[in-house]
Amino acid sequence: MKLFRSKYLVLILLGLASCKEEGTQNGSRVEELPYFEEASFTPQWISLDADSLNDFHVIPAFSLINQEGDSVSQESLEGKVYVANFFFTSCPGICPQMNDNMGMLQEEFIDDDQVMLISHSVTPDRDTVEKLKAYAAKRNINSKKWYLLTGERHEIYNLGRNAYFVEENMGIEKTVDDFLHTENFVLIDKNKHIRGIYNGLNKTSVNQLIADIKTLEGEI
Description:
Structural class: alpha/beta
CATH class: Alpha Beta
CATH architecture: 3-Layer(aba) Sandwich
Strand content: 15-25%
Largest sheet: 5 strands, mixed
Strand order of the largest sheet: 5-4-3-6-7
C-alpha cells in the first residue's frame, strides 16, 4: 500500500503540471493549487470565491503544546500558510530525513512571517516539552518558525488520520491504539484548507512544496 501511495503522489504532481501550467517567477508548475477533502487526495479545482468552499473540509480547532511550553492552536496559525507532519524524537528511521527536509523549508522561509511549520509527536507520552526542546536545539529548529507539538495522544492521532489524512493505509479502520507513522507533509492554506500532500523523504517533492507555498502566498 505504501508503494501505491508513493506512486499516487507522483501522479498527482504530474497531473497538476499538465492541468494548470504556468511560467510565473515563483517556480510553481501550476497557476493555482487544488483543494483536497478526503484520504484519496482526489484534487478538486475550486474558485477562491466559490460558495462551495464555505462547507469544504478544514483543519479543525486543536490545542497542543510546543517545545517552548507555549499553547498552540488554530489561532496561533491564523492567516498563515503552514506545513504539517508527524514524527517522534526517538525515531531511528524516516524521521531524521524528514526533519532534514523540513529544515529546507525552515531555511527557505525563515524570514517569511506568513509561513509556519508544525510537527506533531506521535509518542506524546514520551515526547515531553523538555525532550522536544532538547531535540529542537540539537537540530537547529527555530521555535518561532517551526513548532514541535505534544499533547493528548487521541487529539494528535485524530488530527493525523481524520483532519490531515496523512496515513497510507486508506480504507483500513484504525484506532488511537494503532501507531501512526508516515513520511507525508501536508500543505494548509490561510483558510485551513488542505492544498497538497508531499513525500517528505523526497527532495524533489519538497522543492515542489516550496514552489507551491509561494503560489499560495499569492492568493488573495
